[in-house]
Amino acid sequence: MKTTMKTLALLLMCCFISALHAENIQRPQSENYIKGVEALNEGDPATAYTYLNAEINEHPDNGYAHCYMALICNFCQDTKLALEALNSSLQLIPEADKEYRSFAHYSRGVLLTQLKMWDRAEEDLNEAIRLNPQDVENYKSRAQLYLETARYEESFNDLTHALELDSKADVNDLVLQLMAVAPNSDLMERITATYQQLDQVTIH
């Protein structure tokens, strides 16, 4: 089952907001930016847009604001503007802030996957993993890309790695999709064994 744009936007919003509590890197503290982030936390993209748009007009070099704006554009199903905002964010977010840069690459990779721009999407997801190899969502998204490009073994490997990082990772849909297209019995057996393990984790 492919992720809808609305579901994707909500996923990106949740993942990006969680990054706020990560590394102790100096990030913007301007009033419009803070209020925009707070509005996103409260699930109010319209108010967030107002504040973040004001922030970008006043501080166009705030790459974090551009990245948040990409989430809002995506939520409004404006993929072109979302990609432009992510491009700007990657030009502006400091190289030292690996977690946010990873998330920006992840976000762009997911959007490019939706657009079936496979090579560029894979480059972004590879970079997201390089910058933040402990983020389960990076592997899940690359697994989705591999699945959609018939690279089933690689997709399964990424799902397996995601589960190694988090045994409760939500990969059920991807596992079921892989089971439906597994090209040989060996891969099918391994996918089935993984699915059975997921059932046991859910039960406990």
What do you see in this structure?
Residues 1-21 form the signal peptide. Pfam families: TPR_1, TPR_8. Keywords: Repeat, Signal, TPR repeat. It comes from Bacteroides mediterraneensis. TPR repeats lie at residues 102-135, 136-169. The protein is mainly α and 204 residues long. The chain folds into two domains: 1-109, Tetratricopeptide repeat domain (Serine Threonine Protein Phosphatase 5, Tetratricopeptide repeat, Alpha Horseshoe); 134-204, no CATH class. 75% of the residues lie in helices and 0% in strands. It has eleven helices and no strands. The protein has helices at 5-18, 31-41, 45-58, 63-75, 79-92, 98-114, 118-131, 136-148, 152-165, 172-181, 185-203. Helix 4 (63-75) packs antiparallel against helix 5 (79-92) and helix 7 runs antiparallel to helix 8 (136-148). It is elongated, with a radius of gyration of 18 Å. It starts with a helix and ends with a helix.
Layout of helices and strands, plus pairs?
Elements: H1 5-18, H2 31-41, H3 45-58, H4 63-75, H5 79-92, H6 98-114, H7 118-131, H8 136-148, H9 152-165, H10 172-181, H11 185-203
Organism: Bacteroides mediterraneensis
Keywords: Repeat, Signal, TPR repeat
Pfam family, one: TPR_8
Unreliable spans are 1-10, 17-22
> What's the pLDDT, averaged over the residues?
88
> Pairing-aware structural class of the strands and helices?
mainly alpha
Number of domains: 2
Report the end-to-end length measured between terminal Cα atoms: 26 Å
- What's the helix count? 11
Give the CATH superfamily of the largest domain. Answer: Tetratricopeptide repeat domain
Shape: elongated
The main pleated sheet reads as: none
CATH class of the largest domain: Mainly Alpha
Annotation, overall tally of beta strands: 0
